[in-house]
Amino acid sequence: MTATLPEEVRRCFERFITTELTTVDARQQPITWPVTPYYSDGAETIDVTTGLGYPKKADDARRYPQVALLFSDPTGSGISAKTRVLVQGTAYVDEEDIDANRERYMTESVIKLPATKKMHPPKFLMGPMNWYYARIYVKVRPERVLVWPGGDPAVEPEIFDSHQEEVRSGHTEEPPLAHADAAGGNVAWDSRITELGSRHETAVVSWVGPDGFPISVRLPIQLDPTSHRIRLGATPTGLPLTEGRACLTAHAHAPDFTWQENFQVRGDLVQLAGGDWALVPRKLVGGFELPKGLARYRDILKNHRRFYRTAKKRVNA
Q1: Which of 102, 212, 278, 312 is geometrically suited to a Cys-Cys bond with 177, CB 3.0 to 4.6 A?
Q2: Cβ neighbours for 127, distance < 8 A, ≥ 6 positions apart
Q3: Calpha distance 111→105 (Å, rounded)
């Protein structure tokens, strides 16, 4: 499908440093993390990867292959246009040849992110860090692509779809899937949430659509500390917003990717009395980050043992 897409869309796939990958876990909780996309013009799939020591993204995609990739942050890509692209696709998880995947990753990552080459440890340390360098690939075959040429979520997106006639007629021949109940529980108002709306003026909001595919969109956000709500600053046009489990993800990275930071808030989307929408936060989750300077080594060492054990158990399974 990608070969027939407009050139500016394919350019996003190829040149963006990060894309927001959304998978769905066993509780139908959408989970969104920034990852690096690997794509060659005209290829059947857009590929992303995760380390053997932190395989949850891959495991969720294997169990529930409907995933989404949102291209909404052009930092470092050299693309000045405001085009935003959502890909809803079917995932195939490749971990049949971990050695080949590691070699592919070492080659592709240095080509795409040349400044990160100096950040790799000496070869004699790569063995103990096999939990990171041994890679699992998630290959996403696009089924539906939504494009916002100006990046404005208030404007209805252009749709490229393998079921294009169904989209045009306003209905689908596939029955809607049962929608998961709200997560419920206590409200989590972590101190890092206060970065939303200030340090992070926009964030990626993700939920599961009626057809089972995740939907993601980058929106302006506003904090409401009094009611412990994260308000969506805009209502996306042409996307079926539904109450229930959702994920809000904030991230940033250097143009050359020598540092990155990210976290997500999982909770429930609710519609307010005036028709606006908000997220009720239930849990804050920190991601795999690369802090600036020496702090990155401290954080890697802190998590090394846990990731190492996970990778060893997976290899021996």
Answers
A1: 212
A2: none
A3: 10
Q: State the Cα–Cα distance between residues 305 and 252, nearest whole angstrom.
A: 26
Which of 38-41's residues contact partners 24+ apart within 8 Å by CB, and which partners? 38/108, 38/112, 39/2, 39/10, 39/13, 39/14, 40/14, 41/10, 41/14
Residue with tokens 């690096």: 36
pTM score, two decimals? Answer: 0.89
Domains and CATH numbers, the chain: 2-316 (2.30.110.10)
pLDDT in the model for residue 73: 96
Cβ atoms of 88 and 119 within 8 Å: the answer is no
- Give pLDDT tens digits for 173-218: 444 555 667 777 777 788 889 889 888 999 999 999 999 999 999 9
Tokens 């809803």 sit at which residue? 88
Q: How many CA atoms lie within 13 A of 169 on its CB side?
A: 7
Whether residue 276 contacts residue 235, with contact meaning beta carbons closer than 8 Å, is answered with yes
Residue listed under structure tokens 């964030």? 203
Angstrom distance (rounded) from CA 277 to CA 220: 12
Reduced to 3 states (helix: H, G, I; strand: E, B; else coil), residue 142 is strand
Q: Which amino acid is at 61?
A: A
DSSP 290: B
Amino acid code (one letter) for 124 = F
Q: Are 247 and 29 in contact (CB under 8 A)?
A: yes
